[in-house]
Amino acid sequence: MDDRLEMLKNVSLFSKLKESELGVIARYSEYANLAAGSVVFRESDSADALFVVQSGEISINRDAEGESTCIATFIEGETFGEFDLFENSQRTATAIAEKDSVILRFPSAGTRFSELLLRHGEMAARILHRFLATVAGRIRYTNSLISEKTRWVEDLRKQIHYDKLTGLYNRSYLDEEVMPMLNRGEGAFTVIVIKPDNFKEINDNYGHGAGDRVLKMLAQAFSGAIGFKNIGIRYRGDEFLCVLPDAGIAVELAGRLHEAFRSVDAAGVTGDADFRMTASVGIALCPDHCGCADSVRTAFEKMLEARNSGGNATRTT
After folding, report:
1. Which among 244, 272, 118 is positioned nearest to 182, based on CA atoms?
2. SS3 of residue 129 by DSSP
3. What is the pLDDT of residues 206-256, one digit of tens each?
4. What predicted TM-score, i.e. pTM, was given to this entire model?
5. Are 299 and 235 in contact (CB under 8 A)?
6. 245 preceded by cis ω (within 30°)?
7. Closest Cα to residue 314, out of 259, 263, 276?
8. Cβ–Cβ < 8 Å for 281, 225
9. What secondary structure does DSSP assign to 54-109, as a single string?
Protein backbone atom coordinates (compact mmCIF):
# COMPACT_ATOMS: atom_id res chain seq x y z
CA MET A 1 0.00 0.00 0.00
CA ASP A 2 2.96 2.23 -0.96
CA ASP A 3 3.72 4.85 1.68
CA ARG A 4 0.16 5.98 2.41
CA LEU A 5 0.04 4.20 5.76
CA GLU A 6 3.22 5.82 7.03
CA MET A 7 2.04 9.21 5.85
CA LEU A 8 -1.35 8.88 7.55
CA LYS A 9 0.27 8.02 10.89
CA ASN A 10 1.71 11.53 10.98
CA VAL A 11 -1.58 13.26 10.25
CA SER A 12 -3.07 14.71 13.44
CA LEU A 13 -6.62 13.92 12.41
CA PHE A 14 -5.84 10.20 12.17
CA SER A 15 -3.28 9.98 14.97
CA LYS A 16 -5.65 8.16 17.40
CA LEU A 17 -6.66 5.44 14.96
CA LYS A 18 -5.65 1.83 15.28
CA GLU A 19 -3.28 0.32 12.73
CA SER A 20 -6.16 -1.57 11.12
CA GLU A 21 -8.23 1.60 10.89
CA LEU A 22 -5.35 3.46 9.28
CA GLY A 23 -5.31 0.63 6.78
CA VAL A 24 -8.94 1.38 5.94
CA ILE A 25 -8.16 5.05 5.44
CA ALA A 26 -5.16 4.18 3.27
CA ARG A 27 -7.20 1.72 1.20
CA TYR A 28 -9.78 4.39 0.39
CA SER A 29 -7.21 7.10 -0.33
CA GLU A 30 -5.48 8.04 -3.55
CA TYR A 31 -2.63 10.30 -4.57
CA ALA A 32 -3.01 13.17 -7.01
CA ASN A 33 -0.09 14.83 -8.78
CA LEU A 34 -0.75 18.51 -9.38
CA ALA A 35 1.11 20.92 -11.61
CA ALA A 36 1.54 24.46 -10.27
CA GLY A 37 -1.69 26.38 -10.84
CA SER A 38 -3.93 23.31 -10.78
CA VAL A 39 -7.26 23.69 -8.98
CA VAL A 40 -7.98 21.11 -6.28
CA PHE A 41 -11.54 22.31 -5.75
CA ARG A 42 -13.53 25.45 -6.38
CA GLU A 43 -15.83 27.51 -4.20
CA SER A 44 -19.38 26.04 -4.29
CA ASP A 45 -18.14 22.55 -5.26
CA SER A 46 -19.56 19.72 -3.17
CA ALA A 47 -17.19 18.83 -0.33
CA ASP A 48 -16.60 15.12 -0.88
CA ALA A 49 -13.03 14.65 0.42
CA LEU A 50 -10.26 15.96 2.62
CA PHE A 51 -6.65 16.25 1.51
CA VAL A 52 -3.19 15.77 2.98
CA VAL A 53 -0.21 17.53 1.39
CA GLN A 54 2.62 15.10 0.75
CA SER A 55 4.79 17.70 -1.01
CA GLY A 56 4.41 21.16 -2.49
CA GLU A 57 2.11 23.94 -1.36
CA ILE A 58 -1.64 24.49 -1.56
CA SER A 59 -3.30 27.88 -1.08
CA ILE A 60 -6.92 28.49 -0.06
CA ASN A 61 -8.42 31.51 -1.79
CA ARG A 62 -11.67 33.38 -1.35
CA ASP A 63 -13.21 35.72 -3.93
CA ALA A 64 -14.82 39.02 -2.94
CA GLU A 65 -15.87 41.79 -5.27
CA GLY A 66 -13.86 40.35 -8.15
CA GLU A 67 -10.65 40.00 -6.17
CA SER A 68 -9.16 36.74 -4.91
CA THR A 69 -7.50 36.75 -1.49
CA CYS A 70 -5.33 33.95 -0.10
CA ILE A 71 -6.66 33.11 3.37
CA ALA A 72 -4.47 30.09 4.18
CA THR A 73 -1.54 28.05 2.89
CA PHE A 74 -0.88 24.36 3.52
CA ILE A 75 2.44 22.59 3.18
CA GLU A 76 3.83 19.08 3.61
CA GLY A 77 2.05 17.01 6.27
CA GLU A 78 -0.88 19.42 6.71
CA THR A 79 -4.55 18.65 6.10
CA PHE A 80 -7.12 20.83 4.38
CA GLY A 81 -10.74 20.57 3.28
CA GLU A 82 -11.91 18.66 6.35
CA PHE A 83 -14.22 21.39 7.71
CA ASP A 84 -16.47 21.45 4.66
CA LEU A 85 -16.37 17.65 4.42
CA PHE A 86 -17.49 17.08 8.00
CA GLU A 87 -20.13 19.78 7.72
CA ASN A 88 -21.37 18.10 4.53
CA SER A 89 -21.48 21.53 2.91
CA GLN A 90 -20.28 23.18 -0.26
CA ARG A 91 -16.74 24.47 -0.50
CA THR A 92 -16.45 28.01 0.81
CA ALA A 93 -13.16 28.75 -0.97
CA THR A 94 -10.98 27.61 -3.86
CA ALA A 95 -7.85 25.48 -3.36
CA ILE A 96 -4.96 25.93 -5.80
CA ALA A 97 -1.54 24.26 -6.07
CA GLU A 98 1.02 27.06 -5.71
CA LYS A 99 3.85 24.69 -6.72
CA ASP A 100 4.06 21.26 -8.32
CA SER A 101 2.45 19.26 -5.52
CA VAL A 102 1.40 15.77 -4.48
CA ILE A 103 -1.67 15.43 -2.28
CA LEU A 104 -3.48 12.45 -0.78
CA ARG A 105 -7.22 12.50 -1.21
CA PHE A 106 -9.57 10.75 1.23
CA PRO A 107 -11.87 9.19 0.32
CA SER A 108 -10.84 8.48 -3.24
CA ALA A 109 -12.99 9.70 -6.12
CA GLY A 110 -16.20 7.71 -6.43
CA THR A 111 -16.27 6.70 -2.75
CA ARG A 112 -18.88 8.37 -0.57
CA PHE A 113 -17.61 9.58 2.78
CA SER A 114 -20.97 9.05 4.49
CA GLU A 115 -21.01 5.38 3.47
CA LEU A 116 -17.55 4.84 4.94
CA LEU A 117 -18.69 6.40 8.21
CA LEU A 118 -21.65 4.05 8.41
CA ARG A 119 -19.55 1.03 7.49
CA HIS A 120 -16.82 1.83 10.03
CA GLY A 121 -18.71 3.54 12.85
CA GLU A 122 -16.11 3.14 15.60
CA MET A 123 -13.36 4.50 13.40
CA ALA A 124 -15.59 7.38 12.29
CA ALA A 125 -16.32 8.31 15.90
CA ARG A 126 -12.60 8.48 16.67
CA ILE A 127 -11.93 10.66 13.61
CA LEU A 128 -14.77 13.05 14.48
CA HIS A 129 -13.67 13.22 18.10
CA ARG A 130 -10.16 14.11 17.00
CA PHE A 131 -11.55 16.69 14.58
CA LEU A 132 -13.61 18.36 17.33
CA ALA A 133 -10.62 18.37 19.67
CA THR A 134 -8.52 20.01 16.96
CA VAL A 135 -11.19 22.65 16.32
CA ALA A 136 -11.53 23.39 20.02
CA GLY A 137 -7.77 23.74 20.32
CA ARG A 138 -7.63 26.15 17.39
CA ILE A 139 -10.44 28.25 18.87
CA ARG A 140 -8.69 28.44 22.24
CA TYR A 141 -5.43 29.39 20.57
CA THR A 142 -7.10 32.04 18.41
CA ASN A 143 -9.00 33.48 21.37
CA SER A 144 -5.84 33.69 23.41
CA LEU A 145 -4.11 35.60 20.62
CA ILE A 146 -7.01 37.98 20.10
CA SER A 147 -7.52 38.59 23.79
CA GLU A 148 -3.90 39.57 24.15
CA LYS A 149 -3.42 43.21 23.24
CA THR A 150 -0.25 42.32 21.47
CA ARG A 151 1.46 44.81 19.24
CA TRP A 152 1.09 42.63 16.19
CA VAL A 153 -2.67 42.32 16.71
CA GLU A 154 -2.92 46.09 16.79
CA ASP A 155 -0.66 46.35 13.73
CA LEU A 156 -2.80 43.79 11.92
CA ARG A 157 -5.95 45.76 12.66
CA LYS A 158 -4.31 48.87 11.27
CA GLN A 159 -3.23 47.04 8.14
CA ILE A 160 -6.73 45.72 7.62
CA HIS A 161 -8.69 48.89 8.25
CA TYR A 162 -6.34 51.78 7.54
CA ASP A 163 -5.10 53.14 4.22
CA LYS A 164 -1.30 53.04 4.22
CA LEU A 165 -0.82 56.15 2.12
CA THR A 166 -3.20 58.58 3.82
CA GLY A 167 -3.73 57.08 7.28
CA LEU A 168 -7.50 57.29 6.82
CA TYR A 169 -9.85 54.36 7.25
CA ASN A 170 -10.04 52.26 4.09
CA ARG A 171 -12.88 50.65 2.18
CA SER A 172 -12.55 47.40 4.16
CA TYR A 173 -13.45 49.33 7.29
CA LEU A 174 -16.48 50.77 5.51
CA ASP A 175 -17.65 47.34 4.31
CA GLU A 176 -16.87 45.32 7.43
CA GLU A 177 -17.54 47.76 10.26
CA VAL A 178 -19.47 50.83 9.15
CA MET A 179 -22.07 49.37 6.78
CA PRO A 180 -23.15 46.56 9.14
CA MET A 181 -23.60 49.17 11.87
CA LEU A 182 -25.66 51.40 9.55
CA ASN A 183 -27.72 48.47 8.29
CA ARG A 184 -28.78 47.71 11.86
CA GLY A 185 -30.84 50.89 11.59
CA GLU A 186 -29.43 52.72 14.57
CA GLY A 187 -30.72 56.11 13.40
CA ALA A 188 -30.43 58.61 10.58
CA PHE A 189 -27.08 59.34 8.98
CA THR A 190 -25.52 61.09 6.01
CA VAL A 191 -22.96 59.87 3.51
CA ILE A 192 -20.80 62.41 1.70
CA VAL A 193 -18.52 61.50 -1.20
CA ILE A 194 -15.94 63.97 -2.50
CA LYS A 195 -13.68 63.61 -5.52
CA PRO A 196 -11.22 66.24 -6.81
CA ASP A 197 -12.05 67.43 -10.33
CA ASN A 198 -8.51 67.98 -11.57
CA PHE A 199 -6.41 65.42 -9.70
CA LYS A 200 -5.79 63.52 -12.95
CA GLU A 201 -3.73 66.51 -14.15
CA ILE A 202 -1.27 65.84 -11.32
CA ASN A 203 -0.81 62.19 -12.19
CA ASP A 204 -0.67 62.80 -15.94
CA ASN A 205 1.76 65.73 -15.84
CA TYR A 206 3.93 65.03 -12.81
CA GLY A 207 3.72 61.27 -12.25
CA HIS A 208 2.15 59.03 -9.63
CA GLY A 209 4.76 59.91 -6.99
CA ALA A 210 3.61 63.51 -7.18
CA GLY A 211 0.02 62.28 -7.16
CA ASP A 212 0.63 60.40 -3.92
CA ARG A 213 2.05 63.53 -2.28
CA VAL A 214 -1.02 65.53 -3.25
CA LEU A 215 -3.31 62.73 -2.06
CA LYS A 216 -1.71 62.97 1.38
CA MET A 217 -2.36 66.71 1.38
CA LEU A 218 -5.97 66.16 0.33
CA ALA A 219 -6.42 63.52 3.05
CA GLN A 220 -5.15 65.96 5.69
CA ALA A 221 -7.47 68.67 4.39
CA PHE A 222 -10.35 66.19 4.34
CA SER A 223 -9.69 65.05 7.93
CA GLY A 224 -9.47 68.62 9.18
CA ALA A 225 -12.74 69.58 7.51
CA ILE A 226 -14.85 66.66 8.75
CA GLY A 227 -13.57 66.77 12.36
CA PHE A 228 -12.75 63.87 14.65
CA LYS A 229 -16.39 62.95 15.43
CA ASN A 230 -17.20 61.86 11.88
CA ILE A 231 -15.87 58.84 10.03
CA GLY A 232 -13.45 59.63 7.19
CA ILE A 233 -12.56 56.99 4.62
CA ARG A 234 -10.37 56.86 1.53
CA TYR A 235 -13.04 55.18 -0.52
CA ARG A 236 -11.26 54.49 -3.80
CA GLY A 237 -8.27 56.13 -5.52
CA ASP A 238 -8.81 59.88 -5.15
CA GLU A 239 -12.33 59.53 -3.74
CA PHE A 240 -13.03 60.24 -0.08
CA LEU A 241 -16.12 59.37 1.89
CA CYS A 242 -17.50 60.69 5.15
CA VAL A 243 -20.26 59.25 7.34
CA LEU A 244 -21.86 61.59 9.84
CA PRO A 245 -24.85 61.20 12.12
CA ASP A 246 -26.20 64.71 11.72
CA ALA A 247 -27.98 65.46 8.43
CA GLY A 248 -28.43 69.09 9.45
CA ILE A 249 -24.80 69.99 8.86
CA ALA A 250 -24.28 68.04 5.61
CA VAL A 251 -24.46 71.02 3.24
CA GLU A 252 -22.34 73.15 5.57
CA LEU A 253 -19.77 70.38 5.77
CA ALA A 254 -19.76 70.06 1.97
CA GLY A 255 -18.89 73.73 1.82
CA ARG A 256 -16.03 73.22 4.26
CA LEU A 257 -14.74 70.32 2.14
CA HIS A 258 -14.77 72.45 -1.02
CA GLU A 259 -12.81 75.15 0.80
CA ALA A 260 -10.39 72.63 2.29
CA PHE A 261 -9.58 71.13 -1.12
CA ARG A 262 -9.20 74.58 -2.70
CA SER A 263 -6.76 75.53 0.05
CA VAL A 264 -4.41 72.63 -0.65
CA ASP A 265 -1.15 74.15 -1.80
CA ALA A 266 0.23 71.83 -4.46
CA ALA A 267 2.75 74.37 -5.77
CA GLY A 268 5.59 72.28 -4.34
CA VAL A 269 4.51 69.51 -6.68
CA THR A 270 3.25 71.39 -9.73
CA GLY A 271 5.52 74.42 -9.58
CA ASP A 272 2.41 76.47 -10.34
CA ALA A 273 1.37 78.70 -7.46
CA ASP A 274 -1.96 79.37 -9.14
CA PHE A 275 -2.96 75.71 -9.35
CA ARG A 276 -6.08 75.14 -7.26
CA MET A 277 -7.88 71.88 -6.63
CA THR A 278 -11.64 71.87 -7.10
CA ALA A 279 -13.93 69.03 -6.18
CA SER A 280 -17.35 67.48 -6.74
CA VAL A 281 -19.45 66.46 -3.75
CA GLY A 282 -22.41 64.09 -3.46
CA ILE A 283 -24.65 63.85 -0.39
CA ALA A 284 -27.10 61.07 0.50
CA LEU A 285 -29.48 61.45 3.45
CA CYS A 286 -30.55 58.15 4.96
CA PRO A 287 -33.22 56.97 5.58
CA ASP A 288 -35.13 60.07 4.40
CA HIS A 289 -33.95 59.92 0.78
CA CYS A 290 -32.44 56.46 0.30
CA GLY A 291 -32.11 53.06 1.94
CA CYS A 292 -29.13 52.29 4.15
CA ALA A 293 -27.78 49.67 1.75
CA ASP A 294 -27.99 52.17 -1.13
CA SER A 295 -26.57 55.17 0.73
CA VAL A 296 -22.97 54.91 -0.51
CA ARG A 297 -24.02 54.24 -4.10
CA THR A 298 -26.51 57.13 -3.96
CA ALA A 299 -23.91 59.57 -2.61
CA PHE A 300 -21.47 58.41 -5.27
CA GLU A 301 -24.05 58.95 -8.02
CA LYS A 302 -24.76 62.44 -6.70
CA MET A 303 -21.03 63.20 -6.74
CA LEU A 304 -20.88 62.08 -10.40
CA GLU A 305 -23.89 64.28 -11.13
CA ALA A 306 -22.00 67.27 -9.72
CA ARG A 307 -18.88 66.30 -11.64
CA ASN A 308 -20.72 65.83 -14.94
CA SER A 309 -22.31 69.26 -14.55
CA GLY A 310 -18.87 70.84 -14.69
CA GLY A 311 -17.51 70.09 -11.22
CA ASN A 312 -16.77 72.39 -8.28
CA ALA A 313 -20.32 71.71 -7.12
CA THR A 314 -22.45 69.78 -4.64
CA ARG A 315 -25.49 67.64 -5.36
CA THR A 316 -27.71 66.19 -2.66
CA THR A 317 -30.63 63.80 -2.53
Report:
1. 244
2. helix
3. 888 888 999 999 999 999 998 887 889 998 889 999 988 877 788 888 999
4. 0.53
5. no
6. no
7. 259
8. no
9. EESEEEEEEEETTEEEEEEEEETT-EESHHHHHHT-B-SSEEEESSSEEEEEESPT
